[in-house]
Design a protein that fits this description.
The chain is α/β, with parallel strands linked by helices. The chain has one domain: Vaccinia Virus protein VP39 (Rossmann fold, 3-Layer(aba) Sandwich), CATH 3.40.50.150. Helices cover 26% and strands 31% of the residues. The chain is built from 6 helices and 9 strands. It has helices at residues 6-11, 25-40, 57-64, 89-92, 114-124, 184-194; strands at 47-51, 68-73, 82-83, 97-103, 125-134, 138-146, 154-162, 195-203, 206-216. The strands form 2 sheets. A 7-stranded mixed beta sheet has the order 3-2-1-4-5-9-8. Strands 6-7 form a two-stranded antiparallel sheet. Helix 3 links the parallel strand 1 and strand 2. The two termini are 33 Å apart.
Amino acid sequence: MEVQGFKRERELNKEAYYSEGYFEKYQLFSLSEQINLIYQNTSSKSKVLEIGKGNGFVSDFFKKAGFVFDTFDINANLEPDIVGNILELESSIVKQYDLIACCEVLEHMDFKYFETSLEQMRKITNKYVILTLPNCQKNFGMNLQIRLPKRKVFSLPLFFHTLIGKNICPEHFWEINYTKETSQKSIEKILLKYFTIKDKGFFHTNPYHNFYILEKRQ
């Protein structure tokens, strides 16, 4: 029996990843944040695998920059380097990667597959996994961009979170804090079975998306 959600993801046309929502500035902010996270945790000699190619925004950037950057997706229409199912990742991948990026992917299938997906990623990474997930908590606040003399611009996020009106995206099976099972505490307890959490937080430019930088437990 096919995993619920896989059929939809497998059959989506490439054009779906260029719909109006992908031109929203917050979506573009998240993609640029992903690029920055990957860059900060790799070098030009690193081997990187992106699970969930989407429209190729992230992978195209790194490939043009000269990185060894492969893509993995269940949807052959997106022309990934490797077509496969994340729950069978180990049998689809014949080499190890220094970093795996899995951004906005795991919420597209039932939460019961979350741990299996992590276990599979752990088996093919030498060191890091970057995971991003949506958080259903509503955010109120602002992100201040501050530039001091002779210093780079830095962000000062001032956000407040509330559980009022916990609605999730129709295409998602779950999001962080949507239920007790998917609470941030529960998710991090599972993550710690396979990884140490090197860093975590939310994108200052789009607080809907939380990130984890995970280091493989030996």
